[in-house]
Design a protein that fits this description.
29% of the residues lie in helices and 28% in strands. By secondary structure, the protein is of the alpha+beta class. It is globular and about 45 Å long.
């Protein structure tokens, strides 16, 4: 993951458009790995899947939405779900119900773990991490431990779920 060596004020980050959007971590703008077919396929799948369940689960799905996880940290999860009754925010400051990270080949687990910890510290109850290259799915809860999930990803205490097999079948269909 490429990073800049120049620190910038948060105000500059917030008024700058990045293509694709970048995380902002304690003054440093960090690029995100993305753009490969399995990543895009899963991002599209989750957007479609959650949109189809939005009424039933009372959620809205947001791909690549800026989330302010702390005063000097902004993350852009690949996909997140917010409660239908969450406040209308241009940049999310209210914790999403779920954040999803889809790994690219260059992603490092130490960087992903840092992202997970940021989401959980903000109050996000569940984070899903999908590795399309190794065909693995993980769930992280408040303790930050990545648990391998082989059958169904869930958000405990909600009806939100997704079949792990369906994720990888979607990749195979492309």
């Amino acid at each position: 993951m490429a990073t800049s060596s120049v620190l910038i004020p948060v105000e500059e980050y917030l008024r700058t458009s990045y293509r694709p959007d970048c995380d902002y971590i304690d003054g440093e703008v960090r690029e995100r790995n993305m753009g490969e077919l399995p990543h895009s396929t899963l991002q599209a799948f989750f957007s479609w899947y959650f949109r189809n369940h939005r009424q039933e689960w009372k959620v809205n799905v947001l791909p690549e939405q800026r989330v302010q996880v702390s005063e000097k940290r902004y993350r852009i999860p690949d996909v997140c779900l917010i409660a239908r009754d969450a406040p209308h925010e241009l940049i999310l400051r209210t914790p999403p119900v779920l954040c999803i990270e889809i790994l690219s080949r260059e992603d490092r687990m130490t960087e992903i773990q840092e992202r997970i910890e940021d989401y959980l510290a903000m109050g996000v109850p569940a984070v899903w991490v999908i590795d399309p290259w190794r065909r693995k799915a993980f769930l992280a809860l408040s303790d930050g431990i990545l648990r391998p999930i082989h059958d169904t990803l869930t958000v405990p205490g909600t009806p939100i779920e997704a079949s792990v097999a369906s994720l990888f079948q979607e990749i195979d269909a492309n």
